[in-house]
Amino acid sequence: MDSGSEYTIVVGVDGSPSSKAAFHWAVQHAKLTDGVVRAVIAWQYPAFARWEGGILIPEDFELPARQILADTIETTVDRFDRRLVVRQDVVHDHSVTALLDAARNADLLVLGSHRGRGLLRIRCGSVSRRCARRSQCSVVLIRG
């Protein structure tokens, strides 16, 4: 929990429908609680079976992540709502690590839960499951 006066809601964003639903829920919750939204997207270099040369440029992977985050925010947040504060974090790390680090001093962690089929509908994705197990704050899972 945040020891300061700011109610902080961390939300994971990856561009999926469930993460967009989670971001929307976090924004609505922030409006009700006068909270601050901290939107987090993580990126990593892709795993290649073989790499035959060339240089991996971080910007080639970071910029698409920034764009996904910006698009998610733009389609959800009313830019004229001056009371709402949305902070953006683009992190080079594994999703679980980035989200748990961001949520360490937060009041709430909000994540999308991918829908499965059949019995998988009641399960959440691996990132959501690991974050829910290890988070130091309350976790809300939103189905997309």
Automatic annotation (TrEMBL):
InterPro entries: Rossmann-like_a/b/a_fold, Universal_stress_UspA, UspA
Pfam families cross-referenced by the UniProt entry: Usp (PF00582)
Residues covered by the UspA domain: 8-143
Family stated for the protein in its record: Belongs to the universal stress protein A family.
Protein name: Nucleotide-binding universal stress UspA family protein
